[in-house]
Amino acid sequence: MHSRTDLWSKRLARAAEQRRSHDGWRQRPTLSDVAPFIDFAGNDYLGLADDPRLAQAQAQAARRLGAGAKASHLVSGHLEIHERLERRLAELTGRPRALLLSTGYMANLGVLQALCDRHTRVFQDRLNHASLIDGARLAEAPSRRFHHRDLDDLERLLARAPDDTPTLVVSDGVFSMDGDVADVGGLAATARRHDAWLMIDDAHGLGVLGEHGDGCVGRAHDHHQVPILVGTLGKALGSAGAFVAGDEMLIDHLIQFARPYVYTTAQPPGVAAATLAALDLLEREPERRARLHERIADFRREALRLGLPLADSRTPIQPIVLGDNARVMRWAQSLARAGLRVGAIRAPTVPKGKARLRITLSAAHDDDALDALLEALADCQREERA
Ligand SMILES: *Cc1c(COP(=O)(O)O)cnc(C)c1O
């Protein structure tokens, strides 16, 4: 006889065992206040997260307006500072309006759930972020994946889709585990040919790409080409939260129907203030972006000289695909011993057999940091040959 409680513990034990096999178990490194390592794993591409001006803005707003927003946006949590931030984000991305949400994960759930249902069709790049996949599931929308960055495959799928059905094409702007960039113009043209809407999640492009740091969509592709643009604020902008940008009709619809927007407490005002400060710095200190792209070029030149298997990426995300989990863990541990933290990315985050080090570069890395990284990578190679 099994009690039902037994069934639960058996179920959890089985899942844990499966994950532990093949070096798949994940651990949360607890970081002490004084970082004893150089961080090549985070997404703070412009070095804004530690800028005292963001902390100052956050503290001031918290003192004036409270540590929390106290309610959801539709009840009594929507403050002027949120409104101001939404206007700035709309300006930055060249859109009529923007809507602030608490996280990128929720922004993607919110858009897909509010727009889609069983009577719509969703087409996603195979390597899209988990939150986009989950959003289509939440909406219960029939959803197909096209081959990564393959417009012909998308074209084929769209041609076969029913004409009388609202259709949405969804892609990451910069792919978070590969660092490559979507062909936004090509996606827009393909979507237009089939009367589909296009949604781009530019979480890793915002602040990094584009003439104004406005991302791989931004002002270069207006809302007629890309009707739905999602950006996140916890990466290059160094704070937290996310937004959806588009026209009046879209944003009004989300305010009415996006459950991840409606049923959650508004973002703390201090966080919105920190983001406003980050947007000021993005505009006033373009040299941060220039320095970041120099770092990327430096790293790629030297890593290629070492013969490391770099991916085709011009963004701060520079994966080194090593194949199996054990090898990735060996390299990551060796780098950790040298005081360097990189992402060790395994299945199911990436396909099986494509486990990788995910190295991310930042404008905050100096020459010494980059030298230390390259030296430690060369050591990994030597250890393997020995
Ligand atoms: C990080 C990320 C998200 C989630 O954003 P959060 O604000 O961290 O929840 C969504 N999409 C992509 C592509 C991301 O890389």
Automatic annotation (TrEMBL):
It comes from the Bacteria. It comes from Chromohalobacter canadensis. Catalyzes the decarboxylative condensation of pimeloyl-[acyl-carrier protein] and L-alanine to produce 8-amino-7-oxononanoate (AON), [acyl-carrier protein], and carbon dioxide. It catalyses: 6-carboxyhexanoyl-[ACP] + L-alanine + H(+) = (8S)-8-amino-7-oxononanoate + holo-[ACP] + CO2. Substrate binds at residues 26, 129, 349. This is 8-amino-7-oxononanoate synthase. The keyword Acyltransferase applies. The modification N6-(pyridoxal phosphate)lysine is found at residue 235. HAMAP family: BioF_aminotrans_2. Belongs to the class-II pyridoxal-phosphate-dependent aminotransferase family. BioF subfamily. Its EC number is 2.3.1.47. Its cofactor is pyridoxal 5'-phosphate. Keywords: Acyltransferase, Biotin biosynthesis, Pyridoxal phosphate, Transferase.
